[in-house]
Amino acid sequence: MNTLIVITGPTGVGKTATAIGIAQALSAEIISADSRQLYRDIPVVTAAPTAEQLALVPHHFVGTLGLDEYYSAAQFESDVLELLPRLFEKSPYAVMCGGSMLYIDAVCKGIDDIPTISDEVRRRVYAEYEQYGLEYMLNRLKQLDPEHYEVVDRCNYKRVVHAVEICLQAGVPYSRLRTNQAKPRPFRIIKIGLNLPREQLFERINKRVIDMIDGGLLDEARRVYPLRHLNSLNTVGLKELFAYFDGTMDYETAVARIQKNTRVYAKKQLTWYAKDTDMRWFAPGDAAIMEYVMDVRD
Q1: pLDDT at position 55, please?
Q2: The dihedral of CA 246, 235, 53, 208: what is its sign?
C-alpha cells in the first residue's frame, strides 16, 4: 500500500537527518513541510537542507518560491496531493519532513475549503492593519465573526488579519467555513515524532543559533533587510536581527532573543503535537524508528 511517512517534531531536534536515513532505506523522496524553507535566498535562517543533503535524496518544496510570493497551507495541500501519485510511481513510500504544523495537518487531514485571498483584499486588509493596528483588526474580526473572535490567538496579528481577510473574501464568517473534519486519503500515513528531554532540546536550539550565525546568518539577514516588510521574512532569526540593524536592539540581546524565541516556538510545536494521538515518538537517531516503520508497513 502506498505510504506517506511523516517525520516531525520541534525545531532543532534533528528531523532532516532522520528523514534522509529513512528515505534512503526505502528508496523514497522527501517532501519538505516547512513553510519557510519554501523560499529561496534564506537557507541559513530556515536551516534548509545543505547541498550535500539534497544530493543524497531528492527533495521537494525547498527553495521554490521568491520571497515576495504568496503561499498557504491550502496550496501546500493541493500541491502535495498532486505530487504524491508521481512519487508513488517510483516507490510505494514517500517521506514528508518538517515542523510546520498547519502544513502537516493540511496533507494528513485536509483543511477546510477556504477561499484564496485576492491581491486586492490582501492589500486592503494589510493597509488597515498597518494604519490602525492590531486592536482595530480585532474589533473588525469581532464584528465580522464573533464566534472566531472568541478562539483566535489575539496576540498573533497574522492569524487575526488572515481571519478578517477570509471573512471579507468569502462574504461569510470564517467560523462557518471551519468543519474540522478529516478528509480521506488514498494512502496510508505513518507519523513519527522526534523529541528530546527539554533541557537537551534547548541546548541544541541555543547551539544551532550560534552555528547559524557562524554559518552566515548576519550576511543573509543584511542581504534581505531591504525586503523586511515581506511576510516571508517575518520569522524568528530575521526579526531580531532586523531590530539590531535598526538600532533598537544590541547584538547580544538580538542573539539571546533568537534563542529564546526559538525555544518558545519549539514549546508551541510540542503543545500542538500533543493533541495528535496518531503520533509515535522517538529520540532522533533511535534505531527503533526504522524497526517501527518496517513493522507498520508490513
Answers
A1: 96
A2: positive
All structural domains of the chain with their residue ranges: 3-112+181-297, 119-177
Q: What are phi and psi for residue 185, nearest 5 degrees?
A: -125, 140
Pairing between β-strand 93-97 and β-strand 279-282 as defined by DSSP bridges: unpaired
In one-letter notation, the amino acid at residue 52 is E
Q: Place domain 3-112+181-297 in its CATH homologous superfamily.
A: P-loop containing nucleotide triphosphate hydrolases (3.40.50.300)
Please state which architecture CATH assigns to domain 119-177. Orthogonal Bundle (1.10)
Beta pairing partners, 194: 282
Strand, coil or helix: what is 290? Answer: helix
Burial class (CB in 10 A: 0-12, 13-18, 19+), 293: buried
The Cα 259–Cα 233 span in angstroms is 17
> Hunting for cell 495537518 — which residue is that?
105
For the segment 98-134, what is each residue's pLDDT rounded down to a tens digit?
Answer: 999 889 999 999 877 778 888 899 999 999 999 999 9
Would you call 97 helix, strand, or coil by DSSP? strand
CB contact set of 81 (below 8 Å; sequence gap of 6+): 107
pLDDT band at 297 (very low <50, low <70, confident <90, very high): low
Whole-model pTM: value is 0.82
